[in-house]
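Standup notes, structure subgroup. Blocker cleared on the flavin-adenine dinucleotide input:
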Amino acid sequence: MSHSVATQNWGRTNIRERAIDAFSREGFAKAVKDAASRDAHFLPYGNGRTYGDSCHNDDGLLLDSRGQNRILDLDLIHGWVRAESGLLLIDLLSRLSRSGWFVPVVPGTKFVTLGGMIGNDIHGKNHFHDGSIGNHVRKLALLRSDGEEVICSRDENADLFAATIGGMGLTGYILWAELDLMKAPSHLIMEEKVSFQSLDEILALTDEAERSNQYSVAWIDSLASGAKLGRGILITGNHASREQSQDADPRYGKPIVSVPLTPPVALVAGLPLRAFNEAYFWANGRKSGIHLAQPDSFFFPLDAVGAWNRLYGPYGLHQHQCALPLEAAPDAIRTMLEISQKAHQGSFLTVLKRFGEVPSPGLLSFPVPGYTLTLDFANKGAKTLELLGALDRIVLDAGGRVNPYKDSRMSAEVFRAGFANWRELEALRDPAMMSDFWRRVSQ
Ligand SMILES: Cc1cc2nc3c(=O)[nH]c(=O)nc-3n(C[C@H](O)[C@H](O)[C@H](O)COP(=O)(O)OP(=O)(O)OC[C@H]3O[C@@H](n4cnc5c(N)ncnc54)[C@H](O)[C@@H]3O)c2cc1C
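Run returned:
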């Protein structure tokens, strides 16, 4: 039975009551039949960790996958798992914690579902090494609104397979998926943090960091300017060996504290933002040497604080993530940092990663070889939208693209310029599926 719940996108730019229904095959078939006469649409929903509006469908119903979360098969000899799409990453990682296997690509939060990870073809801190999650999907079962269950892989219904990976829920409902796992003697990480003093320095450091590490990510102090523009902390790591981990148990915890209320103003702008950036740079810049880190602190540091997105105040945040080709990236990144500063809208969390050459099987997968810069801005209305529009133009001029699943405001022109093949997804879209994002950019 569908009911209305105030659902949010992670950016909290648009919180309102939305119709949502726990997914069941019977319920879905009935809802499709009832909706046919009203031209209503559906959208699969995972755990709502998408920043933008591609996980919402305000003119229809969300199909909540979280009740369908069983591990159906797990082969710890050859390293693969088959699970229902509502399985949370935290539960899969906990199940694998001492198995010698790891999930080959994880995002910056463990509170995502398997279906959501595939729907957005998520990438991690190891894209240059292992590609995106789509590179590790063996097959999946897709339920279409005509009632057909389609098994898709690179060899079977390959067009639907490609369209579903990064297809943002538009090709149908993923019932289950089979994923290759990655050998890892321990889930604990041998981590190193090193400070760098400028953008040029981090760009020069990246090659070397990637040669000797499986994971690499740079935090940038978005407020540092002049000769210090782009200074920050490079965080790298490899899975620990059994000896290095001293056989310690990996811990996958729930948040230690939670933000209970939304403050009336953003607490992560202005002076607090400057103080945070200074403190983070100096606290992490001290050479700590290579040390053992829990997976939670290495992969999912933000998960330690529940509902941290409330810190952005009542109007939420806009995340702007772009993918830039290698050669054009340095100038574009420099200009993006400069214009954010000139607009007096420093980004709270600014992250720079490298995208590697491993092509995803996904039709609309976001990564392209080069760099990806992620900026988080407190939403200050028209002023922020103007800045985001200017950032979009820099990205397109550099031959790059803006991430659709982090966005809730890009124009159809910006989207289409970055994803020239979008009509191929439209052609394979399940006619009953629609999202707010797709309505905005495809019609
Ligand atoms: C703190 C934080 C850090 C993050 N770090 C990263 C990162 O490093 N890299 C990255 O790529 N992303 C990152 N993200 C974004 C996040 O990983 C993705 O948005 C992820 O896809 C969300 O998964 P979800 O289960 O919450 O799905 P939702 O947000 O609910 O849905 C995601 C998409 O998948 C579709 N979908 C969900 N379930 C199904 C299903 N059963 N069948 C078909 N389609 C389905 C939905 O329709 C929607 O389009 C981060 C988000 C947060 C909050």
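Discussed briefly. Residues 46 and 116 are 5 Å apart (CA to CA).
Next: hand off to the docking folks.
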